[in-house]
Every structure is written in structure tokens, then in C-alpha cells.
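Service request form, structural biology core

Requester: graduate student, group of Dr. S.
Request type: structure prediction, single chain
Budget code: on file
Notes: please return the result as C-alpha cells.

Sequence provided:
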Amino acid sequence: MSHPVISLSHISFGPPSMPILDDISLELNAGHFMGIVGPNGAGKSTILSMVIGRIQPRQGHVDLFGECLKRFNRYRLLKDIGYLHQLHDYTPNLPLKVYDIVAMGLRDYASPLWQWFSASSHQQGDIIQALKYVEMDHLINCDFRYLSGGQQQRVRLARALVRKPKLLLLDEPAAALDNKQQQKLYTLLRQLCDSQGVAIMMVEHDIAAITGHVDSVACLNRNIHHHAMKGEQIPEDVWHQMYGQHMHVIAHDTSCIGCHHD
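Core staff response, request fulfilled:
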């Protein structure tokens, strides 16, 4: 029997009087593409940080690939995870090539021997392939600092893909991408789920952009208010619970829900 890739069991985080996350239970299976939506401060990025063990829950536990996440197994489990954190304006002022940025995502990059040995031909092939996925292989030798924001974001995604992860955690990966590149990104992620069985948990604000690609959408604001499967319209009262009564909900079609604020 296969285990869920992620299992969150009754997770709470933050002070009991004002928790950031409160009694969250959620499962993600191989090949499943899950979007997480909610207002600012809802705890979306906190869930991703908890899954990789960066922060610890106050209550409950996290299981990855059927194992309870602990300090002693964290490094080993993270080798099967690609993580793209939320985009920040700050870029380190280091003369690193695109190749170097992607190489940081390789499984053995942190090995003490890495500084003495260059990447093998197999690893070099993986770097090139990851860059091809995001259409950035032609800039492999360019200085990362001088790329546009959208190009830098695509290189960061390649860094998350280069280790061929079983699980991808993405925090607003479409930030800084234009509409065309956003759709290419979501199509690529869908293909990774379908062809390679990669499980994806993605935080996004624009539910209308992702609903044609994801398998489910978890509506989060401290609690999971609703977990909608593909093609299911999220009830209007769920939007009101998350965003307030000023929210109007407009259904564009049977698989896409858009929102309009007064």
C-alpha cells in the first residue's frame, strides 16, 4: 500500500489565543496537483515551511512519504523535495551564472566534496534539461544578477526541478511572469504530475488562472474552509469566510471561479 506524499495531521501553529494555523489535516498523493488559496496572512506559506521542517508545529505532526518528519530524517527526506520559496526583491550581489544557480538544487550539492569536484556529465545533463523545461537553457552561461525578474524566477524553478523531485512545493511561482509564461508554467507542472507522478502543492492568489490545471483547491484562512476537487465550484459562503462579506463571486464556467471586490 502506497503512502501519501504529504500527510498533515491536526496541525496547529502559533499562540493558542491567535493561531496562524488551527487543526489542519490534509493529504497529498503522488501525481496530485493541489493549489492553496487564501488572503494574505492566512498561513499558506507557513504550511510549506512546516512541510520542509523549517518550523515545527505546536500540535500535530507532518508525515512525508510515509515517515514522520523529524530532525534525524529531515535531510534525507528533503532530497526528494523541490522547493521554490516566495519571490523577494533582494538578489545576492554575487557573480553567479545561471548554471551555478541551478546546480545548487542538485541532491549532492551540499556535500563537502562538491567544492573539489565539478558536476559530473550526468549532473550537467540534468542542469541543462531543467533549464530546457523553463526555456532558459540559452542563457545558461549568463550572469544571474542581470536577468529580468521573470527570467530569474524561471531559473529558480529550474533549480527546484533539477533534482527530479517526487514532491514540488511552490510559493507563488508565477510571480514576475507574464500571462504567456504563467500558462506555460502551469502546463509544465500539469505534465510533471501526469507523466512523472510528481506531487505538487502550490500557493497561488489567482484561482482563476490555476483551476484549469490543478486537481484540487484548498481554501485556507487559519483553517481549511473547503477542499474543492476539479470542476467543483467553491460555495460563496466559503469565500465570505475567508475574505469577508464584501466579496462577490462570479462563476466564469464550470471549472473556473473568479472573484470581484466591491
